[in-house]
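Summary for the steering committee. The consortium agreed at its last meeting that each partner would contribute one worked example illustrating the joint modelling workflow. Our contribution is presented below. We chose a case with several input lines so that the handling of multiple components could be demonstrated. No manual editing was applied between input and output; the record is shown as generated.
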Amino acid sequence: MTAVRLAPATSTALADLLFGMADDEFVIGFSDSEWTGIAPILEEDVAMSSIAQDELGHAKALYELLAGVLDDGRDADALAYDREPEAYRHARLLDHGRGDWAMTIARRFLYDTADAARLASIGDGWPPLAELVAKIRREERYHLMHVLAWVDRLARADGEARSRFVAALEALAPDAPTILAAPDGEAALLESGILARSMPSAFAAWRGEVARVLGPLGITIALEPAAGASRHRPAPSTDFRWLWGEFTSVRRSDTGATW
Amino acid sequence: MTDPLALDPVLPPRERSELGGRARAWNEDLSHDERYEHFEAHVLGGGKIEPNDWMPDEYRAAVLRFIEMHANSELMGVLPEREWIMRAPTLRRKLALTSKVQDEVGHAQLLYRVAEDLGKPREAMFDDLLAGKTKFHNVFHYPTRTWADIGVIAWLVDAAAIVAQQALRDSSYGPYARTMQKICWEESVHIMHGRDVVVTLANGTASQREMLQEALNRWWGPLMQMHGPRSDRAKDRDLHWRIKAKTSEELRQEFLTIYVPRILELGLTLPDPALRHDKAAGEWRYTDPDWNELRTVVTNHGPMSEARLEFRRLNREATAWVRAAILHEAPRAAA
Amino acid sequence: MTRDLASDGDRMIDEGAPVQPDEAPTGVLEPYEVFRQEKDGDAMRHGGNVLAPDPELAVHYARELFGRRGESVRLWVVRRADVHVLEDLDLLQPPLDRSFKKPGGYVMRDKLAAARGRAGTSKPGARAASHDTTGRRGEPGGER
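What follows is the complete predicted structure of the assembly.
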């Protein structure tokens, strides 16, 4: 699988990219999986759960690739679970909780469209990632179809639904671009062809796509490029610390045990 | 042999059915008692009933009550497990548990759909559940305290449920029978997941094994109560109408026969000293389950009954605006 | 062809905008029947139904309830109100003899035995291919 030898700088940059992508998928996956059993409509409950499971599956596959790149004895589960809160690299957009249905749809819309732009930027420089991304993009088509169906319905409904949705978009807009913050060592990734397009270019494409969807619905939000350091969290939010406490609780109760 | 070219005058329905082949005669314009007779004969003969058939009120009410309780149980059964989705200790377990809970929601959807087609709207069923007018199975009124509870529930509670559900695959009510076939197929995966969690813990550290045994000790009582007290086959109307096919005791015996050996082979013990298989009688003996506990629990006085119903009430209120948005409000034109 | 459902007035499908024929209304929860094909070449089989406010979400929900495990390769999602039902047994199970339309209407055992007796021949090899069966062993009406 890792037959392609990478220069150390490239390898480090790739690990950084993978950490970001995997942590994004992991955090949004388990955050949205919280709707399982309590979504507004039974049929929608099943749909949202499938989407959340897909994200967790993508996270798992990305952590597995990352384990190969790091080659430090950690497997995918160790990478997902056995880090301190400060060491997680998910984008700030995902520090926001899932909130109500409007917030979830708004966050999914911003995330899925940004993630699509990110995935479209992956080149052939490292085949294992390119191959995984090709599969992930196929699965993401359904996520986009589904979230756009809901964006349309919430935006077009009168009164409360539309105003909740617009308020959620406005609350998330400052942090949404963090998905496409340029990773450390982006230059090495571009040079090796692991990235076929820079994150700033991806951002521009994404911003246009968001406007194309929201414009006809009479909604405008301001999206500004994110700083490169926006994935580092020396002081994780209280919300994330609490989440971390929950999702690591069983594992930490008997470290080294098999579950 | 009848001459196929002979012409027959078109007869009104009643006389046509007298020529033979009295299919669905209860749907014809007959007196209530005649319709009831045809209907009962059909059902007792193994025939199926579909949503657009005429039904005696007793049958419709019995089927609806049975399915509604089943649907309620799937919906409430989600709650004990979903809090552990967050705490699942590996990526694969997290996926498997999320998928299992999703399936329970899916089963609730399938069952509420069947009940809706019998004439009761979904919102009315939610109203009655949350007001305590309709019930859900005992096992979903108890807390889940550890990861081991998740294994025990997914394996043994689902197993006890599947024993009951397999016996419903030939229910007289067609949509319910077909839904049960789909549900049984899906549940078989849950049992494998549950057993995998349990076996992994059994093979694990001393503290994992302790956690597992403790969970099993706590869940055994509710499991033994789950199928309900022995009932008189002759007086059971659900059996009469072939809505279900087996008695409570038959289901319990079946469960014990399959699962006690599988529990014991892991080196676990069961907290009932009287539990044994009486070869001569061909059945399992056990300490009589606490039927008072069962009655208390299913009337919503169990340890978690009120908390879970309240959780659902709050959740339903909090999400009402979403349903209003896509159901009652007309779409507005784009700006 | 009418459906004789109890308490129609209480049903959710009566709420909301009036239904135009040939047009699926949005904003009204309605059942959509789902047919699925398990693998290439199989017949479409009825799987069940979902409740949805419009055809687009009905398709999404059908995918969830009947396709999320990769168990189907194709789904047909049809609004129940658009399904035309025929249950009239005068049309589907008419009472007069129609056995000439089925293999069971052509039992030749005795006639063939008589012909062989007359001709002094015996029955040809049982495995010989024959065009006058449905292809299934033991199906009545084939050569005996």
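Strands of chain B lie at 276-278, 283-285. The longest strand of chain B covers residues 276-278.
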